[in-house]
Design a protein that fits this description.
Oligomer: single chain
Number of strands: 2
Strand content: under 5%
Order of helices and strands: HHHHEHHHHE
Number of domains: 2
Strand order of the largest sheet: 1-2
């Protein structure tokens, strides 16, 4: 349950962080760790933007607590599951890193590079918490390849293409109108061009995942269920991407796109882990 709480909270903070950005509340709280100089919480003068930004910060507390509790539980079983302890410590370290990155995002008044890095680290954390959940299902000990080597190679190529797709998505968003505050101006890449550059690897990604699904189904491979889930999320992502590009980037659609990108990466993480099984 604690591991699931950690996973859900890390997905939730992407959703609330997206809300902060898409509602122009990025500087709703003008300081860190307090909201404003002399006040930990938002003052009435900050209005709804202060409330939205502070709500996002508030989730960091339960998120950190969940990460600490998972480390504690993993420490107790470290003799049997050293792998889970290592994963939990990585998650805790990244959660702490995110707190400091969030501070610099505010101090640097929503620098595009920092905002993009902040989101990317969150996606990585979601993937690692998903990996923790996936590893709890398998028995401890040595693992062996459970799929044909060619399938494993295609899966790793798919992982690379997904990483490229997400990175270009981050750059595309940084070049678009959703800067996080109405007074922040982005002088980055051409947003229209970047939307096309972001879409191309996305289509390649969908084709590669379809190949994995068909291969898994024909050969009845271990990752079949997760490749199906991965394909479903990817197709929804493509549909939302086309919709938002043709409708002026509506904030709600962009926010859903951001959250699904993290879930998509998490599903692929599980697929990669399903390439191997506990050794007989």
């Amino acid at each position: 349950m604690l591991a699931w709480a950690s996973f859900v909270l890390n997905v939730l903070i992407i959703a609330t962080g997206g809300t902060v950005r898409l509602t122009g509340s990025g500087l709703g709280c003008t300081d860190w760790p307090v909201c404003t100089p002399g006040s930990l919480v938002p003052t009435p003068e900050l209005g709804i933007h202060g409330i939205i930004e502070f709500a996002n910060r508030t989730i960091s507390g339960p998120l950190l607590l969940a990460a600490l509790l998972v480390v504690f539980v993993s420490w107790r079983i470290r003799q049997q599951r050293r792998d889970l302890l290592v994963i939990s410590l990585i998650v805790l370290a990244l959660v702490i890193l995110q707190a400091f990155v969030g501070a610099f995002v505010v101090w640097e008044e929503l620098s595009a590079a920092l905002v993009g890095f902040h989101y990317t680290v969150s996606v990585v954390i979601v993937c690692i918490t998903a990996a923790y959940l996936a590893r709890t299902v398998d028995a401890p000990g040595p693992r062996e390849l459970a799929v044909p080597r060619g399938f494993a190679i295609v899966t790793h190529v798919t992982t690379f293409v997904m990483a490229v797709t997400i990175i270009f998505g981050v750059v595309t968003t940084a070049s678009g109108p959703h800067s996080g505050d109405e007074n922040v101006v982005r002088d980055g890449f051409d947003a229209t061009l970047m939307s096309h550059v972001h879409a191309w690897p996305g289509y390649v990604l969908a084709v590669l995942i379809a190949v994995l699904v068909v291969w898994s189904a024909i050969a009845r491979l271990r990752p079949l269920r997760w490749t199906l889930a991965l394909l479903a999320i990817t197709l929804v992502q493509i549909a939302i991407g086309i919709y938002q590009a043709r409708n002026g980037l509506p904030p709600f659609a962009v926010g859903v796109h951001m959250v699904l990108a993290a879930l998509n990466a998490a599903a692929l993480t599980v697929v990669v882990l399903r390439l191997k099984k506990p050794a007989a």
